[in-house]
Give the backbone structure.
Amino acid sequence: MRLLSSLGVFTQTGNHFGLTPVGELLQSHSSRSMRDLAVMFNDPWSTAAWTELPHSVRTGGDGVTKAFGKNTFELFHDEPDQAANFHAAMTNFSRSVVDATLEAYDFSHFSHLADVGGGHGVLLGSILRHTPGLRGVLFDLPEVLAGAPAAGHLASLEDRVELQPGSFFETVPTGVDAYILKSIIHDWSDDHSRRILRLLRDQLAACDPENGRVLLCEMVVPDNGAPAPAKFLDIEMLVCTIGGKERTASTFSASRSAILAYLFPSRADWVRALGKQGGDSRIWAGIHYQIDNESGVALGESVAQKFIDWASKDGSQ
Ligand SMILES: C[S@@+](CC[C@H](N)C(=O)[O-])C[C@H]1O[C@@H](n2cnc3c(N)ncnc32)[C@H](O)[C@@H]1O
């Protein structure tokens, strides 16, 4: 406890210890809990991946494949306990950006929203509760959706939400006027991402080319030397995914994905809580980094038609 006090997790007065805002994030019952995220970072797939960091830096290949001979999502298929910790961790993380997302974006002009790779549905459930009349589709791999009802994030929304299993490399939900993808594109290389986005493009072209939207919710790496959690997550993607990465705002706006919306959840609860520590170096989930004090939500948005125009020019038809 003395050590953790010295690192900002506890306060210490003599032999009395208390929780700091960072320590509160590790409580399981806190609505802002990051406990499951901390547990996940200590699971074998994660620690083995980080052990392979030199391999990843030298070759660009991920540490999970090096250590286990299969990529992270293939491993989760075979390791349900580690998969369960991963999805609980994603729920922690997503819950922390719900307020920023709802604050940043008005979902009420849609009638039907699909959360693609939506995990156990905490984000979709929050958006639906906040937006009466909106219907939802939760799309993810079959084994992931199997855990969604028990997770309870869609409780009492059963008449407004449909669970649709599938792989986003093969199919995406049809008949919706908006897609949201949170922490999906960052898991994948540009080529993988294009495969996913092209399927969305084709569906929007058929369904609602004028008003349809694709919303990407991702961290954004600052274009300068400023400290930022996204820079840590970028290396997490290097060691844990096959070609995933965090992208900069200029990549989003200069690359072809510029025409997609992105939300910058810099006002996430955990950023706020860590910021309360003084905005200086802190420990989070065992990783030492500095807090990005940037405030506000940057929001880009575009009409699906532009997306379709771009994609058509891409020669990918
Ligand atoms: C980083 S998690 C993000 C989950 C959720 N969107 C969130 O932010 O909490 C990536 C999600 O993509 C899903 N996923 C991975 N490969 C997939 C595939 N081929 N098709 C559909 N979903 C997939 C995973 O099961 C997982 O739920």
